[in-house]
Design goal:
This protein is an alpha+beta fold and about 70 residues long. It has 2 helices and 3 strands, in the order ααβββ. The protein has a 3-stranded antiparallel sheet with strand order 1-2-3, covered by helices on one side.
Length: about 70
């Protein structure tokens, strides 16, 4: 968490709220289950887990710099 805060304050990654907003926009009405900041292949990625309205768990990977959807 300290590292994520330092990266956020340095402007290296987006605030968590922005990424969550983007993920929820992809699945309107979904419930946020979990968010993790991970480093994968030398890039920072937010892994977002959502429960959709049809009770399906979706795992999304969004770029921590610009919220671009990877998966």
């Amino acid at each position: 968490q300290d590292e994520a805060l330092a990266l956020r304050q340095a402007g290296t990654i987006l605030p968590l709220e922005v990424v969550v907003e983007r993920a929820l926009a992809l699945y309107p009405g979904a419930t946020l289950l979990e968010v993790e900041l991970e480093e994968e292949d030398d890039r920072l990625v937010y892994e977002v887990e959502l429960l959709t309205l049809d009770s399906v768990v979706r795992e999304l990977e969004l770029d921590a710099r610009d919220a671009r959807l990877y998966k």
